[in-house]
Amino acid sequence: MIRWLLGRTLQAAATFALAVLLLFVLMRLAPGDPLSRLVGDRDVSAAEIEQLRRRFGIDQPLPDQLRAFLSGAARGDLGVSIEHYPDRVTSLLAARLPATALLGGVVLLLNFTAGIWLGVRQASRRGSRFDRWTGRLALAAYAMPGFWLGLVLVAFLSLRWRLFPAAQMTDPLLPLDADALTRALDLLRHLALPALTLSLTSIALTMRHQRAAMLSVFRLDFVTAARARGLTEHQVLWRHAWRNTLVPMLTLLGLWLPVLVTGSVFVESVFNWPGLGSLAAQAIASRDYPVLLGTAMLVSGAVVLAGLLADLGYVLVDPRVRPS
Amino acid sequence: MIGSLHDLLRRAWKNPSGRWGALALVLLAIVALAAPPLLPDPAAMPDTVLGATPPSTMHPMGTDQLNRDMLARVVVGARISLSVAVLAVLLSLTLGALVGLVAGYAGGWVDAILMRGVDAALAIPRLFVLLLLLVVWERIPLGALILVIGTTGWFATSRLVRGEVLRLRHEPFVTASEALGAPAWRTIARHLLPNAAGPLLVAATLGVGDVILLEAGLSFLGLGVQPPIPSWGGMVLDARPLIVTAPWTAIFPGAAIVMTVLSVNLLGDALQAALDPRSA
Amino acid sequence: MSDLLEVQDLRIRFPTPGGGVSTPVDGVSLRLARGETLALVGESGSGKSLTALALLRLVPPPGVIDPASRIVLEGVNLLELHGEALRAVRGGRIGLVFQDAMTSLNPVISIGEQVRETVAAHRTLRGKEARERAIALLDEVGMPAASTRYRAYPHELSGGLRQRALIAIALAGEPDVLIADEPTTALDVTVQAQILELLDQLRISRGMAVLLISHDLGLVAGRADRVAVMYAGQIVEEASTSRLFRSPSHPYTRALFGSIPRLDGAVDRLVPIAGAVPLPDAWPAACRFHPRCPEVLARCSVETPPVVPLAPGEMSRCWLLVKGAR
Questions:
Q1: What is the interface pTM, i.e. ipTM, of the complex?
Q2: Phi, psi of C233, rounded to the nearest 5 degrees
Q3: CATH topology of domain A89-321
Q4: Distance of alpha carbon B69 from alpha carbon B38, whole angstroms
Q5: Nearest Cα residue to B153 out of B103, B97, B213, B88
Q6: DSSP one-letter code for B226
Q7: A314 to chain C: closest CA residue
Q8: Residue C38 · residue C210 · CB < 8 Å
């Protein structure tokens, strides 16, 4: 078991290393010079540009840049932000990570509870109006761009009807001595719309995955056998059928991270939610390459990690998969 | 192969969702192709004084902040979004099929290297790959945008094709026909297409929807289709400051995206169900 | 011995892809009394497994049981039950031991848990008591080290032990009727004998009625009191085991005997039955066996043979038994 775990972790590390390499290549592939942007946007003299060039190592030959980059990355140093100079990229990422983690966590919770329940219901009522229309509605929601849905929700629910705050994570005017409950409620109010936007646009994924998994389990003999024992439909559906869909659902969990991360770039920027997504969006606007690269690396690492955890999960969930 | 594809399409048509999706797409394509000459020129006479006006009989979708007819802009945007998506997906499909074929047939270390690369590439969310490529590209031309999007979307297809090739390689009839003189690669190629056509078609259809959303997002961030070429994402970006005073400037382009992507996905779903009825 | 279970004219229909209807079970009538073993014998495709499922109202959709059919358990027509009442019958009055234990057991739940949940579903036992009852049941079916094996998963057990677990589950609701559908097909010969012996013992110790379904006439020889032979969705002969083996009255039964080896040397050549088992959507006209019958008459392909009662509880569907039919 330990050997398998070790092997799998090494594999994941190798994939991540290769991904980092790819990212570096991507960065150098793109035409244009990240620093030339600064000339257009800021009042910077030629001498200062040269200095910055040397500082960011852009004047070095490519293999040297790669080496510097990789050794820095291995030490946990992802460079310095161009826009927020001299803040380190890692500290910027660390500062923004909690907000995204909170939003992501809430969305995951919402999507998995609602998505699983709806998917199971669809499968048990396959072909019914509920099944067909829920599927269509979910698909329609999936077709909505997150930035558009977010904007529409903000326009109507926040700005026009003042039901929810329009931006950010907390109320800047909240008194400093406000108690925990008030803070929590405030946070929830701010969380509601971004979480709703991200959830709605991606719930179709969970629902469809769950529905398909249930349908394939229904065909198996032990489901009929469970009914033959006189167990309730609820027991047959959840304890017997659903428990056998945990493996495909774990696979889905591993696929969720890219979806969340991609969506949060748009939703966080529309709602001004101070997370990694809006950091990336700002880095785009200011052409802050190191920050963008750092975010990409962090996200790729998280995706690889999620895959590894999913594999670990299979072993825990399915007694047949225990490596001897 | 034509027979089985024809069969697939026929069964997808029987599905009401598939029918609606297909019809909506055909309608959209017709409007996108034929309508622009019939509508007011979306680039004509920007009028900042009059600005955005709400929907009226003269302007069914209202006008944007430069008093340009929204309907005309949305329709031209359809042309752009659809062509970008279709072309990018075709590129992805071709690249993916090529890599999958090579990896599956060559096997050994070629396959190992290619698939390791694919794994690593799949670890990076597609949006971030595009962001890194596009951020330093000042005002990317449309053709280059299609190329960039297309070259970032072939990874999953390559896995699919590789899987088919591997499966066929071990089929007894391939070895048998090889013994009779037909080289293995020829037999595989002849049987690959009919077997893979269905799943590839489904992947392509769903891929078009994904690319439309991706391109809209990139345009919203200012990285995709560059003005003055109208794009739905770009229109929503422009509409952002007006979201309360003139919501129609954002609502209509977004609704167009929703309609299109929904139709594409309904069609893709119907094709998927026709391919594997047990999962419907 | 009074009748515990009576099946009257069971008919099950399935829609066919072409728009038609197939009737894989077409007018099956059975009687089962407490304490006896009735064997239902037939080749695959004869409809015997479907009959078993029908008794528990588990016919897979889109199959439908004809409303004119009746399945009466101690005076109650099971086809009129719904909800709670139906669930009480499933496992509580009638237990079903499925054919393949590997696929009939939930792979992610331990076998002990699967017994326990059945116990809890039918008795008013909870928690620890239900668990102890489950261990006792595993013991009763001959599972060695029952309390340790409780936690085992299906894939960790041998075929024979899996089958025993399946039997324990079927008994957990203390049913009066036990249906065993090909209980030994997936097992080795030596294990087969053990399982059949177990079923017999349980029948006696619990006073149950057993419906033993099999395609193997030899299996049935020393185990059943009566035998019903099924062909093409119908019972073509029903008799006491001794009478059936001594002098089978239906050509199909005779042909079955002719095609199996016997230790007493009574058969020196195995004669396979010509032709193939017909499919439910294309039953032959009139007598369904007529295309393959070595003793076929002219009228067999034209007129459906009647059910000819022989001795009490014995019948045969054949023109040969009707006086003056030739």
A1: 0.88
A2: 80, 0
A3: MetI-like fold (1.10.3720)
A4: 12
A5: B88
A6: P
A7: C108
A8: yes
The predicted pLDDT at position C105 comes to: 94
Q: What phi and psi, each to the nearest 5 degrees, are found at residue C319?
A: -70, -30
Residue A178: count other Cβ atoms within 10 Å of its Cβ: 13
Q: How far apart are CA C204 and CA C166, in angstroms?
A: 19
Is A221 close to C103, i.e. CB distance below 8 A?
yes
Using CA coordinates, name the residue in chain C closest to A240: C106
B94: phi then psi, degrees, rounded to nearest 5: -65, -50
Structure tokens belonging to residue A286: 């200011």
Q: Sort out which chain C residues have CB atoms less than 8 A from A221's CB and list them.
A: 98, 100, 103-104
Q: Which residue in A137, A202, A136, C270 sits closest to B17, CA to CA? A: A136
Q: Report the chain A residue with the minimal C-alpha distance to residue C175.
A: A229
Q: What is the DSSP letter of C154?
A: G
Task: Report pLDDT for C185.
Answer: 78
Q: Which of C68, C71, C49 shows the shortest CA–CA distance to C60?
A: C49
- CB-CB contact of C47 with C28 (8 Å): yes
CA–CA distance, B48 with B87 (Å, rounded to integer):
35
Average pLDDT, chain A: 85
Q: Return the exposure string of C66-80: e unless at least 16 CB atoms fall within 10 Å of the residue's CB, then b.
A: beebbbbbeeeebbe
Q: Is the pLDDT of residue A267 over 70?
A: yes
Rounded Cα distance, C165 and C157, in Å: 10
CB contact under 8 A, B213 and A37: no
How near does any CA of chain A get to the CA of B120, in Å? 5
From A22, A140, A284, residue closest to B262, measured CB to CB: A140
Matching residue, tokens 């031309």:
B141
Residues of A in contact with C109 (CB under 8 A): 239-240, 243
Any chain A CB within 8 A of the CB of C284? no
Which residues on chain A are in Cβ contact (under 8 Å) with C73? none
| Identity of the amino acid at B208 | V
Could you give phi then psi for residue C10, rounded to 5 degrees?
-75, 125
Is A235 in Cβ contact with C117 (below 8 Å)?
yes
Domains and CATH numbers, chain B: 5-35+69-279 (1.10.3720.10)
Phi, psi of C268 (to 5 degrees): -100, -15
Neighbours of C237 (CB within 10 A): 27
Phi, psi of A63 (to 5 degrees): -60, -35
DSSP state of B245: T
Interchain proximity A319–C153, CB inside 8 Å? yes
**Element at C38 (helix H, strand E):** strand C37-41
Distance between CA A316 and CA B1 in Å, rounded? 44
The residue ranges of every structural domain in chain A are 89-321
Distance between CA atoms of residues C103 and C61, nearest Å: 19
Cβ atoms A194, A137 nearer than 8 A:
no
The helix (H) or strand (E) run that includes residue C213 is strand C209-214
The conformation of residue C62, written as its DSSP 8-state character, comes to: T
CB distance B132–A258 less than 8 Å? no
C30 reaches A (C-beta below 8 A): no
Q: A143 CB near a chain B CB, below 8 Å?
A: yes
Quick check: pTM over 0.90? Answer: no
With bands split at pLDDT 50, 70 and 90, how would you rate the model's confidence at B3? Answer: low
Q: Name, in order, each residue with C-beta under 8 angstroms of C212's C-beta and a sequence gap of 6 or more.
A: C37, C38, C39, C40, C180, C183, C199, C220, C223, C224
Pairing, β C209-214 against β C308-309: unpaired
- The DSSP annotation for B37-76 comes to GGS--TTS---TTT------SSSTT-B-TT--BHHHHHHH
Tell whether B36 lies on the interface with A, counting CB pairs under 8 A.
no
Residue A7, exposed/middle/buried by CB under 10 A (0-12, 13-18, 19+)?
exposed
Query: How is residue A160 annotated by DSSP?
Result: I
The per-residue pLDDT for range C251-281, each reduced to its tens digit, is: 889 888 877 666 666 656 677 777 888 888 8
